[in-house]
Amino acid sequence: GMGSVGAMARGSADRYFQAEVRDTLKLVPEGIEGQVPYKGPVAGVLHQLAGGLKAAMGYVGGRDLAEFRE
User: Fold this and answer.
1) How do the domains of the chain map onto residue ranges?
2) Which of 9, 19, 38, 50 has the fewest Cβ atoms nearer than 10 Å?
């Protein structure tokens, strides 16, 4: 991820307020790097995420994303 030591060493450290750190041993990672094997289309996962978001919006009475953020 972008918070891994490797990503921060390649330039994303400023996103984590560690831009001034030059020694990678002193970076504080907020993630890991890795690859996962392909598991198929993402459509099913996105459908579930959208359904969960719609349910959460219903629980809190949000009619749209702007209202949901409030």
Assistant:
1) 1-35, 38-70
2) 38
